[in-house]
Amino acid sequence: MKAGNFWAYLLVMFGVTYFIRVLPFVAFRKKIENPYIRSFLAYIPYTVLAAMTFPAVFYSTGSAITSLAGVAAALFAAYRGKSLFTVALCASLASFAASLVL
Amino acid sequence: MKQFLQGIKDGSAIGIGYFSVSFTFGLAAVSSGLCWWEALLISMMNLTSAGQFAGITVMASAGTYVEMAVSQFVINLRYALMGISLSQKVDCRFKAGKKSILGFAITDEIFAVAMSRDGEVSSIYFGGLAVLPYLGWTIGTLTGAICGNILPKSISDALGIAIYGMFIAIVVPAMKEDSRILKMAALAVLFSCCMHYMPLLRHVSEGFSIIICAVAASAVGAAFFPIEEA
Question: Is the pTM of this model over 0.90?
Answer without folding.
Answer: no
